[in-house]
Amino acid sequence: MIVAFSVSPAAAESDGGVSEAVARAVRVVRESGLPHRTGSMFTEIEGEWDEVMDVVKRATDAAGEGAGRVGLVIKADIRPGYTGQLDAKLDRVEAHLRDA
Asked: Thiamine-binding protein domain spans which residues (predicted)?
């Protein structure tokens, strides 16, 4: 499965940013060893249900350190029997663009 998630504490930095909290979450994802990609608004992670959800939970906890509230958005592509789809999905789209 691939999960795209975005996590942000309600208590922001003095300039309204959340980069320090997001960095704590991204560190958890990177240390998980699972395939992942981080963009400006979402982090995608691929693996089995239990391992991915464990990472999302730990990343949410890390981002929320010291905050009274945390926002979490999750979108999942659950496709049993498939792995390596984090890049393969993009490769298929690019192939269609080249063929057009």
From this structure: 3-94
* Burial classification of residue 2, based on how many CB atoms lie within 10 Å of its CB (0-12 exposed, 13-18 middle, 19 or more buried): buried
Neighbours of 53 (CB within 10 A): 17
- For the domain covering 2-99, report its CATH number: 3.30.70.930
CA proximity to 36, closest of 50, 26, 27, 46: 46
* Per-residue pLDDT tens over the stretch 24-64: 999 999 999 999 999 999 999 999 999 999 999 999 999 99
